[in-house]
Amino acid sequence: MNQQDKHLEISPSRRKLLQATGLAAAVGLGGSVVPTQSHARKLKTNAKIVIVGAGAAGLDAANRLSRGLDGAQIIIIDSRTEHIYQPGLTLVATGIWKTTKVRDKNARYMPNDVKWLKKRVVAFEPSSNSVMTDDGQRIIYDYLMVTTGLQVNYSDIEGMSTDLIGKLGIGCVYDNPDHASRTWQMIDQYTDQGGVGIFTRAQGPVKCAGAPLKVTMLTEDLLRRKGHRDSASMMYTPPAKGLFSQPDINAFLKEEFPSRDIAIQWDHPLVGIEPELKRATFKTPSGERRIDYDFIHVVPPMQAPDPLADSDLAWQEGPFASGHWMEVDKLTLQHRRYPNVFGSGDCVGTPIGKTAASVKAQVPVATANLISAIADEPLSARYNGYTSCPLITRKGQGILVEFDYDLNMIPSFPFISPYEQHWFPWMLKDRMLHAAYNAMLRGRV
Amino acid sequence: MAFSVFGILAVIIEALRPLLSFFLIWLVIDLIATALTLRQRRFAHARARQWAIRAGLVFAVGAFLAGPWLTQANFADFIGLVDWLLLALMALAVGFIGFILTLPVVSLIRS
Ligand SMILES: Cc1cc2nc3c(=O)[nH]c(=O)nc-3n(C[C@H](O)[C@H](O)[C@H](O)COP(=O)(O)OP(=O)(O)OC[C@H]3O[C@@H](n4cnc5c(N)ncnc54)[C@H](O)[C@@H]3O)c2cc1C
């Protein structure tokens, strides 16, 4: 008996009702990631759906499920009331935006008919269809949507703590406005004084893999604008032999960095810092290497949040097991062992993703498939791996990079080359993407 | 990424949200002006059209010149025809909206 059967056996009356009622509201995406939910009929159901995490993916999912279902009991669990527009943090950390621009409130996007429990989930217990909150409450669900985002492991770097951000030449754009603005203080100082600047990148998946690159290039640009480029020596330290997963952009960056006198130190994962000495330690294939710096941008390793990582929802083996990412089918975003569980956003273990742009493509698929599951219909929505990054190369210019699981470029605007720097992607980043993100939170794009 | 009309509208509304109350007030004034001028059969008369076109042009030129500055960039950041064409298109759109929004009010002007 699979988990879905088990789950349905628990509530046979509910099963009958689910089968008897209405049509799925958001099926028929047929390989596409485009939602059709807003125009379709609502599915009548009394299913109890729990969403864990009210970030980008959670709010989007809550709005879509609220609009797609009639009579469902939808509960969202997250103690955080502030909403942070994380894609804006790179601009805050490089002095282009003020922090006020990225601070928002979850309440503005919360649908009225969704019950918001301001708590944290401390344990996922999928075999009993329940989650446990930090006040000891067990919440039973029929369907679960996991949207917890990820956890930044600062302590994986010896000597590093969040208190150090904004002190002694240490910056880290991950992952809140306070860290970003303290990073800006350090970058502002570095671009005034010059010296050795080290820009790191953690091993394994990180959210917005473009962010460390953008911080590097915007800092270099600022040094030029301030007329201090000659007094600064910059290096980028990827943990392996690549700069970006998409091969064309990887090739572009391999030329762009040296042309801007940013040295690339391959195979240099950061493992420790000595803040007082301003010294960083890297674990290279030929042993540990220590480098003195005046400024360092620390990008710590990331993983699924502990409660998820410690649960049976995490991948138990394979390439995503080390980050404890949630085990989902990469196309349907349904859990591979618990069919009444779906996931989207940074927490899921899929080959690429971890951007708000991926969230925009994943959530319509995950919610449409969840609704199909309620209706006992085949899951027909598919996520093609879409992810995007307006790779800002300097203030005023960028490249709009969009690709899929096959790492093929899939530009939304065919007239904009995904291989060349333009003002238009910068304009999108500075003016339009925040609006698109907010529309996504309301489940409208 | 595929786009839907609803999606595009939703993004535009979000982009304009800080200015939404201003646009709403303007819209109410426009509606009143339209009702008044339609009753007096002088909605969009020749002189009003001329004024609205001039206003639209001012909006368009203003948007073209201010576009890069509004994005904390400058014309030196423009690369290739695409950037210039896109800015021109955006300026045209702003100009058209300016024309539409001013037409009812300037229709109150006697021909
Ligand atoms: C510096 C930076 C730059 C970025 N730049 C871009 C960009 O240019 N383009 C782009 O597309 N994306 C970018 N991103 C990535 C994007 O912001 C994320 O991919 C997106 O926010 C992921 O959404 P999410 O809902 O999965 O996670 P989040 O938005 O992080 O939300 C997760 C939510 O879950 C909650 N939560 C966690 N654990 C629990 C628990 N146990 N119980 C209850 N609630 C819990 C948290 O409180 C949080 O509210 C960037 C991110 C950063 C940090």
Task: Walk me through this protein's architecture.
In chain A, strand 14, helix 6 (211-226) and strand 15 (232-237) form a beta-alpha-beta unit. In chain A, 28% of the residues lie in helices and 22% in strands. Chain A contains ten helices and 24 strands. The longest helix of chain A is centred in the C-terminal third of the chain and has 19 residues, at 356-374. In chain A, the strands form eight sheets. In chain A, strands 7-4-2-11-22 form a five-stranded parallel sheet, with helices on one face. Chain A has two domains: 22-150 and 304-386, FAD/NAD(P)-binding domain (3-Layer(bba) Sandwich); 154-300, FAD/NAD(P)-binding domain. Chain B is built from four helices and no strands. In chain B, helix 2 packs across helix 4 (80-106) and helix 3 (46-70) runs antiparallel to helix 4. The model of chain B has no long low-confidence stretch (mean pLDDT 93). Chain A binds chain B through residues 32-35, 38, 96, 357, 360-361, 386, 388, 394-397, 402, 410, 412, 415-417, 420-424, 426-427, 430-432, 434-436, 438-439, 442, 444-445, and chain B through 1-4, 6-7, 10-15, 17, 67-68, 70-74, 76-80, 82-83, 86-87. The site of flavin-adenine dinucleotide (FAD) has 38 residues of chain A, from helix 3, helix 4, helix 9 and strand 23.
Topology, please?
The complex is a heterodimer of chains A (445) and B (111).
Chain A: H1 3-10, H2 12-20, E1 43-44, E2 48-52, H3 56-68, E3 69-70, E4 73-77, E5 82-84, H4 89-93, E6 103-105, E7 114-117, E8 121-125, E9 130-133, E10 138-140, E11 143-146, E12 151-152, E13 170-171, H5 177-193, E14 195-200, H6 211-226, E15 232-237, H7 247-259, E16 262-264, E17 270-274, E18 279-284, E19 287-292, E20 295-297, E21 302-303, H8 306-309, E22 341-343, H9 356-374, E23 387-394, E24 397-403, H10 423-441
Parallel strand pairs in A: 1-3, 2-4, 2-11, 4-7, 11-22, 13-20, 14-15, 14-20, 15-16
Antiparallel strand pairs in A: 5-6, 8-9, 9-10, 12-21, 17-18, 18-19, 23-24
Helix pairs in contact in A: 3-9, 5-6
Chain B: H1 5-16, H2 20-39, H3 46-70, H4 80-106
Helix pairs in contact in B: 2-4, 3-4
Bound molecules: flavin-adenine dinucleotide.
